[in-house]
Amino acid sequence: MFCGILFVLYTAIPWEFLPQELGFGSGMTCWRRLRDWNDAGVWQRLHEILLARLRGAGQLDLSRAVIDGSHIRALKGGPKLVRARSTAASRARNTT
Q: Are 24 and 1 in contact (CB under 8 A)?
């Protein structure tokens, strides 16, 4: 299952097109497993373990790290956006 999930994520093919002859199981089973593991926090924990091992071995190079705010949750819903005025053509006022 794990290899099937990685294959689909790497190649970006639809889950239903996961080739059976690769022996990874069905695409839908892999998708369900990915969903369940994500809900259970498996991927987050795996990421933390990998970072800890790399850090412990002195192989974590943060000089190339990039911080991207698009992955940070906005507290209290973030700023309220001002609604943009429409630029579409409007009907003229009735003068009769």
A: yes
